[in-house]
Amino acid sequence: MIHNKTSIGAVQRKLAIAKYFYYFIISVVIMLLAGCTNNNDMTEHEIKNYLDNKYGNDVNYKTEKDGHISKVKFVDIPSLIEIPEEIRIFKGLEEIKIINCNVTEIPEFITEFTELKYLWLEGNPIKELPSFITKCHKLKLLDLTSTNVSSFPEGFGELPITNVYIENTRIQGFPRELYQFDGLKELNLNPINELPSDIGSFKKLKHLKVALKSFKYLDTIESIESFTLNNSMGSHLPEGLGNLPLLNDLNLRYCKNLFKLPASMGNLKMLLGLDITGCSRITSLPSSLNQVPIGILKLDECNGLRSVPKGLQVGSIWAENVTWKSMPVGIFDSEASDLNVINHQITDITGIGRMKNLENLNMTNGKIKRIPPDINKCTKLNLLLLEGNEIENTYNAEISENVDTRLLGNPVFDRKQIDE
Questions:
Q1: Is the pTM of this model over 0.90?
Q2: What's the farthest any 2 CA atoms get from each other in the chain?
Q3: Which domains can be identified in the chain, with CATH numbers?
Q4: Which of 14, 70, 170, 355 is most buried, judging by how many CB atoms fall within 10 Å of its CB?
Q5: Is the pLDDT of residue 204 over 60?
Q6: Which stretch of DSSP H or E encloses residue 71?
Q7: Is the distance from CB of 371 to CB of 390 less than 8 angstroms?
Q8: Nearest-angstrom CA–CA distance, 300 and 320
């Protein structure tokens, strides 16, 4: 009898332990489930702190005056393989940037952001633009640069898109969907042979980036403000290019077949920048260009350049890595306040005194042997950089003590000689 009671007691204890263990497991499961869904109960500030702790300085935000987060940005995070679901708490997001990460797909929860206008996905191995992207009814900007996307989904053209970037994607040619975007303002394309003949029908297009085999039809885009035509293969630009009323920025880097700019460029109202870096076949700039105010003129690696128009209304001239043995004719007759010729073969800068507006002169790493006396006519000169030349003496040059002069690296010349 005692034995039976002992057995019953042991069984009861085992049942009690089992019951306790069962409730313990259930409690743990409930806690884990709660932890998985608890983001909905967290504030934007708490989620922000969580993301800060996880990603540090690689995540950034824009917070509006009312405290809600309108922009989130993840940059250069190789371990990021999906868009963090935690951002769903930011209900008022207008902009999402996921740059140079390893995100492979766009999640459907992106449609929950009813105010989303800007989506940047550059540098991610995304293969597909999903059809549900068409539910982002306010989407204006889509950046697919350097992704593996090959096409747009059906209905994509119904979005209010103004900016499309598909450079270095698998989307080739001039996509037909673009014609549905009446408000298209900015477009980056993969290289194409030439623009469609009706490119002028895009009445609001302001910025175009594309490498072309032919520059045909460029002069028909009357709304254009900026062309980036780097690495194009065309030999000449349309003669009517300078008649575009709003054009103010022209980038032609490494257009190695280009041998001249059109004379009509003198009709432009202004150029914030003109960049012909690496255009080695260009020997001169059109004479009419001296009628156009130019902010920055870039002449890097323009080894064939021999002359520019006298009287260029330019603020800053840059020419790096040039084989010039003498300064191209006309540069010393420009109105430039900054002249930067770096890594060159120039031996003599006599004539520099004609640059009455010159404030900063940087001619480092060349073969200049002396500072000419007419440099004292550059009465506005504040900075003179001549390191890495072969200067032997000042050649009776008088340089104001107010000029920051750096001639380090010259074998027998330094600032002390100027003072003496």
A1: no
A2: 126
A3: 42-190 (3.80.10.10), 347-420 (no CATH)
A4: 355
A5: yes
A6: strand 69-75
A7: no
A8: 5
